[in-house]
UniProtKB/TrEMBL annotation:
InterPro entries: DExx_box_DNA_helicase_dom_sf (IPR013986), DNA_helicase_UvrD-like_C (IPR014017), DNA_helicase_UvrD/REP (IPR000212), P-loop_NTPase (IPR027417), UvrD-like_ATP-bd (IPR014016)
A single cellular component GO annotation: cytosol
Species in which this protein is naturally found: Aliikangiella marina
Gene that specifies this protein: uvrD
Name assigned to this protein: DNA 3'-5' helicase
Domain UvrD-like helicase C-terminal residues, every copy: 287-563
PANTHER family on file: ATP-DEPENDENT DNA HELICASE SRS2 (PTHR11070:SF2), UVRD / RECB / PCRA DNA HELICASE FAMILY MEMBER (PTHR11070)
Keyword DNA-binding assigned: yes
NCBIfam families xref list: PRK11773.1 (NF008743)
Key words of the record: ATP-binding, DNA damage, DNA repair, DNA-binding, Helicase, Hydrolase, Isomerase, Nucleotide-binding
Boundaries of every UvrD-like helicase ATP-binding domain copy: 8-286
Classification via SUPFAM superfamilies: P-loop containing nucleoside triphosphate hydrolases
Residues given in the record as ATP binding sites: 29-36
GO molecular function, a single term: ATP binding
Amino acid sequence: MDVTPILDGLNKAQREAVSSPDAALLVLAGAGSGKTRVLVHRIAWLISVEQLSPHCIIAVTFTNKAAQEMRGRVENLLGHSASAMWIGTFHGLAHRLLRAHARDANLPDTFQILDSDDQLRVIKRVMKEMNLDDTEWPPKQAQWFINKQKDEGKRPKDIKHQGDLFTSVHCKVYFQYEEACKIGGLVDFGELLLRTYELLRDNQHLRDHYQQRFQHLLVDEFQDTNGIQYAWLKLISNKDCGVTIVGDDDQSIYGWRGAKIENIQRFDRDYADVKTIRLEQNYRSTGTILKAANAVIANNQERMGKNLWTEDDEGEPISLYAAFNEQEEARFISSRINEWHEDGNAFADCAILYRSNAQSRVLEEYLLQRQIPYRIYGGLKFFERAEVKDTLAYLRLMYNHQDDAAFERVVNTPPRGLGQKSVEKIRETARAEQTNLWQAAWKVVEDKQLSPKANGALLMFLELIKQGYQEFHELPLEEQIQLTIEASNLMEMYAKEKGEKALARKENLAELASAAREFDVDDYPELSPMTAFLAHASLEAGDTQAEQYEDCVQLMTLHSAKGLEFPLVFIAGMEEKLFPHMMSMDEPDKLEEERRLAYVGITRAMKKLYLLYAEKRRLWGKDTYPAVSRFIREIPAQLKEEVRLNSQIATPTFSSGATQDVVNDGIEFKLGQMVNHPKWGSGVILNFEGEGDRTVVHVSFDCGESKRLMLAYARLEAL
DNA sequence: GTTATCCGGATTTTT
DNA sequence: TCCGGATAAC
């Protein structure tokens, strides 16, 4: 067997990982160390050298994107299709299992998936029925509670509580919510995992079947697994199953969402003879950037230990820029991006990262002003848009009449005269008859429980759904969607809306039809094409923006930047209370997670990194004067370089500042002036505030500190 | 059923 | 400050 193509071009540690004979392998893969490459080549190795059938391999990722990329690269390497292999997200694979064994899992064949938005609506309804005051008991909190329990594998009956109100009330909500899901044939994200887990746990026949089938399990981003995912993996991989897990404890940034880094150590305990391999050679960043990242993360106590290195040059120092305020921060970034582009570089090679989404607004303003094209990640995904969800809700209801969530969503969308009172009547009937809204609605119509007008409208609606299915369900997906949009009058409703919104909505509906045309049905041969499409829409919410091919600057939170890389990176808002965030500063665990986030941010940069902070930032309508982030201080001085305002003097904002000269004790101070302070040493003047005796001067000192000082007392020397 | 107004809340997010 | 959601008034 010629293994050259599989091992060629890999370094020693990578080769060792790819060709490891060990049954339990833990690969600690640092940022930019070729993690995906190792996974892909390991799969190829298992198939071509160890002669495992692709049929026996299961590979799990967290995002659809990662799953797609992995499949694509495996096929590329092997030179043939890998369709027999199970590659997917935890949720995608769980869904697949549940579809194949819906009866055994006690689900209707037509079960539909709730996304978190749908889930919240159902919870709200349930809580209303329970007469819980939603100010005292916020539905969001109940949703969080339920999901947390499911992530830990707990049903209402498994939750222990000693009469504390919070837990006992939420348990009841959880219980009622489960009932509602059962009646509606609905499954939320957490349920996909929990239900699959219980299915395999309680059904020995199925468990044996899958344990026999899967001979090797691979897991990507293992540090992000939560309790139920870990339990799930253990069930699938029996003693004879090879397991390869890949992860980086230093890049665990989803603890707040239930991810447990401890699962890595737990793996070490639970599996026999775990072989650990560290990938520490980095192929992405310059030496300077890596040293900075290493220095920052070294401040964390809870680490498995790892030190990235590179054969690459030291590269440029990391530039620090002390902006006057958030506007000036944005101004600086956009002007640097402009220069970058004028030097012949692509906008798309450049990213602006920030801790929280609110920071993107000012940045956008300035990019817009300079006519720099940009793309913001985050926000509503395609399949989450209201118009798209409305259309899909019609289809869901057509294919699964018991889907109460869909029923609620469209029973009066577009408005057809079925207000709160009419809907409440239907709910009441449903409760009394222990049935779904669809059945109840028919009964309400038959018994003429509503006013003649509402009764007529409801009947029209019910007929529309019933006939819609009969007339459309054999047509191609695209036509079904097109006809549904028309027949439901949704298009008409949106057309009435004014402004750009209406236009965008129309475009999205057209886009929905075309997404259906391009949808590949093959994944679920046993499902009707529409059911498969609807599941796809819930599991893979799609991209945020359509035009991703244009050359534009990438704006995103540090969280969403994980896994990406850019030649030029700006991290904005490097300030205490913003990053590390105020809410994560008090507890050591949370602070360490913030630091890992900083580590992730720094290691995104390939060639050049800018760290920015503002002297003054307007937060929630109030001016704040934040301190420089500790993460900047944790980077050794020799790797950093303060960007001087002197070099910026030609920019409009500051040329006007020349009028702001201030005289104190006969010494003349200017913006951008180099000064010396007895305690802080040399620095540069950023701004003046106030007048006369009360003049406050902002100075950014070379030691990294920046201070606001009363000029009269500051004993500053002009240099 | 639509529009106006008030109030509260305000990290991070994938499936 | 600014956004969205919920309520009240038309």
